[in-house]
């Protein structure tokens, strides 16, 4: 450890560790993303209906994909909402009080739920479904497009990587909280 990394006791106050403009910008982005997500949930329902009109073979996939799409966006919205109190804790310089753990856990839970939804869509897209048209014929349903499964697998890997990263960050946060409490006990 070099001498510059150790704060000098004669320094009146250490430099601020947070950037208020960044916190404000991130909160503004959360508001923007929440609005985009609300529109996205409507578009998932609308566009899926239009796809079924254009490609009737996708009829059996309409409601499962609609529900998965709306729930997937909702998971992202909840995770974004959980970032807001974390940013408030940063602004208040209270991130190591332990209150951040529940918000971090909520973000991890949302990512896990998102992964479960993607896995559901991956399994559902591989099913051999049929539907009966107006004339009474059984027609094979189309539940996926080319490269759809590859896209879903990549999404699952990215979600798994994010969850693992968040678990490591949560572990670091827990250790920092414990060390802070030890220091407070010594002081």
Automatic annotation (TrEMBL):
InterPro entries: DUF2975 (IPR021354)
UniProt keyword annotations, A-Z: Membrane, Transmembrane, Transmembrane helix
Superkingdom to which the source organism belongs: Bacteria
Annotated Pfam families: DUF2975
TM helices/strands, residue ranges: 25-45, 65-86, 106-127, 147-173
Protein name, per record: DUF2975 domain-containing protein
Species per Swiss-Prot/TrEMBL record: Bifidobacterium moraviense
